[in-house]
Structures are given as structure tokens and as C-alpha cells.
Amino acid sequence: MNIQSAINKEVFIPRNERMLVSVEVQRRKRKRMSFLPTGARGDYTTFICVSVTNTRPHQLLITKVKRFGGSLSFTRRSQWTVEQLRQVNGINPNKDSPEFDLVFDNAVDQWVASSSAEKCIFIQILYHACQTYWEGKTGNLGKSGKLGKRRASHGAHQVSTGPSDSPPASSRTLKARRKSYVSPKQAEFINCQSKLTGDACTMNLVIYRCKAFLNRMKNMMVANQRSPGRGQSGRVAGSTNVVQRMNVALGERGDRLTRAEDKTVELMHKAQQFADTAHKVEVSAQTEGCPALRLN
């Protein structure tokens, strides 16, 4: 069982939640207090998780989970709803980087993920989960508004037995609720690569998952290489070389896919320009009555 499955089983399933993604992080700027003893680095491991409740109406939650040194269990530390999330800062919109910030109503956390691929997976899934959540929220609000209108009209039909100038009580209550309701502000994603917040991102997600897997394998090989048993050093070194070659090949494949995508977009723009030019020529020929330039 991998770490994500263990976190989901131990922390979220008992609370009737389902984890969507988690990322292992460290603080970019550590909080230190001079009058408290500071422990050694690595006393605990921090994970930022995104989960959704199984009960309706669904809630999208962001949870900080820690695993302390010498323990195999996970502990839930802090939790926020998506309404409390104000900003997700990807730090660098031009290249993959492990740094990102999360800004909430009452907290600002500056993180460094275990790898740039892990961070890209986290932001990509978080962005689309937020989009799905807010679209569902808007749909539910529209349904409740239509239901309120039907109830108000039905009540008005029943009450209007005699002449009256005042609107029915249900209609006044509905209007008061609409005036008092303030839709929560959605989180802002800034300095994030467009391929993380775009619609056609399935291939990018697969590539990032492969990179994250290879990065975990490489870290495992390096950890084993530091304290290898007898007769294992040769196998560890050979496995490390294989992982490195696979990582290089995957990176080259990702670059080729990116170039192909850019080339496709460029050809689409050229085709659109050609179509616009042909349309202008046709309109001009029909206006001037020149049969030689008229396009049938």
C-alpha cells in the first residue's frame, strides 16, 4: 500500500470522505521561536491533501496531515473548506517548479513539494476539483431559486382570493433571502502554467504521474544506495542507471509532445487566417462584380 492509499484509509475514509490527491511538502520559510527548542529536521513529514465528502451536499476540503518520526500513523492537523481558500500561487508560470503558496482566510502557507511533478499534479487536480465544485454549487443555487419561484407563485395563487396590494409573504421571504445571500468568492489561481489549468490536460497528468513515480523510485534507490547490504551495491547502481535513463527518455517524450501541441496550435491559427483571407476575397469579388475572382 502506497502512502496516498494509507492516508486515505486512515484519515479520510473513517470521516466519510474521499481523498482526491495529496502532496508531500516542506515549508520554504520555517517558523522558529527562539524560546523553544528546535528539533532536528525530519522529525515529521507534512502532506497537503484535497478530499471531498461522500454525503450531499458535497464539500471540498483541504487538509494538512502529518506523520511524526518513529510512527507509522497519520495525524490530521488543520482543515479548510474550499470557500476559505483565497489564492493558489504557482510561483513560476514558465516552468515546472516545486514551490507553491496557499492563501486562506486565516493562514498563508509557503510550501516546497517533494518534486515539481508532485506539485503540478496537486495544482492540476485541485484546480479542476474547484471548477467542478463551483459549477455544482451554481447549479444547485439555480435549482433552489426555481423551486422558490414555483412555491411563491403557488402561494400567491392560493392567497389571492380577494383584492390586496401587498405581495404574499413567501415572495417577500424569497426576495429577502436573495438580497441577503452573498456568493462566496472563488479561489484565484495565479502564476500557474496554462497546461495545469486548461481543459485538455489528460496527457499532461499522465506525464506528471510517470515523472512523480520515477522520482520516488530514484529517491528509494538513492536511500538504499547509502546503506547497501553485501552483494547489493552492483544491483542498486544498475537500477539507479535504469531509472535515470527512463527519466531522461520520459522528459524527451514530454518535450516532443509539447512541441507537437505548439505546432498544432500554430497550424490552427494559420488555417484560420487563410479562411478569413479567402472570405474577404470572396466578398470583395462579389461586391465589385469581377467574375474572374468570384469563388464558387
Automatic annotation (TrEMBL):
Domain Exocyst complex component Sec3 PIP2-binding N-terminal: 41-133
Record-annotated membrane-spanning stretches: none
Family matches, as Gene3D superfamilies: 1.20.5.110, 2.30.29.90
Region described as Disordered: 144-178
InterPro entries found in the cross-reference section: Sec3-PIP2_bind
Biased composition (Polar residues): 158-173
SUPFAM superfamilies hit by this protein: SNARE fusion complex
Designated name of the protein: Syntaxin-binding protein 6
Source species of the chain: Collichthys lucidus (Big head croaker)
Taxonomic placement: Eukaryota, Metazoa, Chordata, Craniata, Vertebrata
